Amino acid sequence: MRLDKPVGIWLLLWPELWALWIAGEGRPDSRILIIFLVGTVVMRSAGCVINDFADRNVDPYVKRTKDRPLAARRIGPVEALVLFGALSAIALYLALQLDFKTLQLALVGAVLTVSYPFFKRFFPLPQFYLGIAFGWAVPMAYMAASGSLPRVAWILFVTAVLWACIYDTLYAMVDRDDDLKIGVRSSAILFADMDKLIVGIMQAMMIFALILVGRSMKFGNWYLAGVVAAGLFFLYQQWLIRNREPARCFRAFTNNQYVGLVIFVGILLEYIYAET
């Protein structure tokens, strides 16, 4: 479940919080907020379990993943599937507490989560598919909070997809050499020596999408400050990956949790000071 490595929870959670705060006009419903907070932890855990199940015969050959429980054979596949089933049942119970339209979106999200680990066997850009799976929480949150999916909800969704492509490409750059040996596909392999440039282009696209969100919502300087801070973190990530050293690429990946944080703080302050 990788609860000892919460960066994945934050990366999944931040776009949900952006959507909940904007859809709720700065005052998200506390019941919906709690459901999404718990659901994020549960679904991320379930995703980790099914991913490790799918990769149980691949992870032993990758330096970063060889000590995972299934890869190291400390637990068996049946135990993993039982845990995945239990987590899925909890996620379903949480989804049933929401309205029918949000439940329908949640079922689509579940299919995306379960199918993602198997896509990297044949799909050359699995990071894009992960982006859709992670970003799908945005329309779910927006529908639960407001009962509709306006244009800004879809701009936020595109923003989340771009962001996942960015940070998961940085993640894939850590394992590129091992992935090439064992035949696992990734954006880092597809982009080859243009990886830094393409990541930079996606970072610029994400900043542009965030500006579109701000213009759509008529946000002011607090939100803009959050977007500028996110841009500065992106520049820092480019500096970290300049030599493609795996340890620094991993630091660039984990740095993205702060990108999500500063954007959320900008949204939060925008609503706080807009009311005073």
Structural overview:
The chain has helices at 7-23, 30-54, 77-95, 100-119, 126-135, 137-146, 151-174, 176-182, 187-191, 195-217, 221-240, 246-254, 256-274. With 276 residues, it is mostly helical. It has one domain: Orthogonal Bundle (Tetracycline Repressor, domain 2). 41% of the residues are buried.
Question: Main attributes?
Answer:
276 residues, mainly alpha, Tetracycline Repressor, domain 2
Give a short synopsis of this structure.
The chain is built from 13 helices and no strands. It is mainly α.
Share in helix: over 70%
User: What is the name of the CATH class?
Assistant: Mainly Alpha
User: Got a strand count?
Assistant: 0
| Helical run tally | 13
Strand content: under 5%
Low-confidence stretches: none
How would you sum up the global shape? globular
For the report, how would you describe the main beta sheet? none
Mean of all residue-level pLDDT scores = 93
CATH architectural label: Orthogonal Bundle
User: What is the element string, with H for helices and E for strands?
Assistant: HHHHHHHHHHHHH
User: Could you give me the name of the CATH homologous superfamily?
Assistant: UbiA prenyltransferase
**Oligomerization state of this entry?**
single chain
From the alpha carbons, calculate the radius of gyration and give it in angstroms.
Answer: 19 Å
End-to-end distance, in Å? 42 Å
Q: What class would the helix/strand composition place it in? A: mainly alpha
**CATH topology annotation:** Tetracycline Repressor, domain 2
Number of domains: 1
